[in-house]
Amino acid sequence: FLVEDNGMVVGAVGRALSNNHWPSKPKWYKYGTPPVPFIVGTNKYVGFIVEDCISACKVAISRYKGIALMGTSIPENFVKTIIEKVERAFVCLDRDATEKSFKLRDCLSHVIPTQIKMIDKDLKWLSVEELKEWGNKLCETL
Predict the structure, then answer these.
(1) pLDDT at position 19, please?
(2) I need a labelling partner for 128 at 20 to 30 A (CA). Which of 54, 55, 65, 104 fits?
(3) In 3D, which of 64, 65, 55 has the Cα closest to residue 28?
(4) Residue 30: what pLDDT?
(5) Do 12 and 3 touch, CB atoms closer than 8 A?
(6) Which residues of the chain carry a pLDDT beneath 70?
(7) Over the range 67-101, which residues count as b (16 or more CB within 10 Å of their CB) and which as e?
(8) Mapped to the 3 state alphabet, what secondary structure does the chain carry?
(9) Interatomic CA distance for residues 82 and 79, integer angstroms
């Protein structure tokens, strides 16, 4: 997955296709230290902040903007990029990152409306139709 900033490739993220060697080899690998998150999709109104690039792509296919942190923490320089790309955000991290979800919401909510949506099932495993329905229900809460 190429990480772009203003049309320039500034980093990349790779994923192992086989779990045969995991955990001895990394499941995910970041190339470089991108100054921006992985962002995909054209919706400029609503962004879903997720942990990984695959989930961000699934969100984008479902008509929303997917923003992957490539982890669970948010570097300070990611905040500016996120608020430039969407008007509202939903933080959708795994339950084991609940505390980080609140920190992320606190970073963004003073600049753009931001809500936390705790997820029980990783978004990458939902079908496109399930994601559309889920996203529509969330947007009704705005």
Answers:
(1) 66
(2) 104
(3) 55
(4) 82
(5) yes
(6) 19-25
(7) bbbbbbebeeebbebbbebbeebbbbbbeebeebb
(8) CEEEECCEEEEEEEECCCCCCCCCCCCEEEECCCCCCEEECCCCCEEEEECCHHHHHHHHHCCCEEEECCCCCCCHHHHHHHHHHCCEEEECCEHHHHHHHHHHHHHHHCCCCEEECCECCCHHHCCHHHHHHHHHHHHHCC
(9) 5
Collect all residues with Cβ–Cβ distance below 8 Å to 96 and sequence separation of at least 6: none
pLDDT at residue number 55: 92
User: Tell me, what's the pLDDT at 74?
Assistant: 81
Pairing assessment for the beta strands 2-5 and 8-15 based on DSSP bridges: antiparallel
Q: pTM value?
A: 0.88
Distance CA 95, CA 84 (A): 27
Half-sphere exposure of 115 (CA within 13 A, CB side): 11
* Residue with tokens 């920190």, as numbered in its chain: 103
Q: Which two tokens stand for residue 51?
A: 């942990």
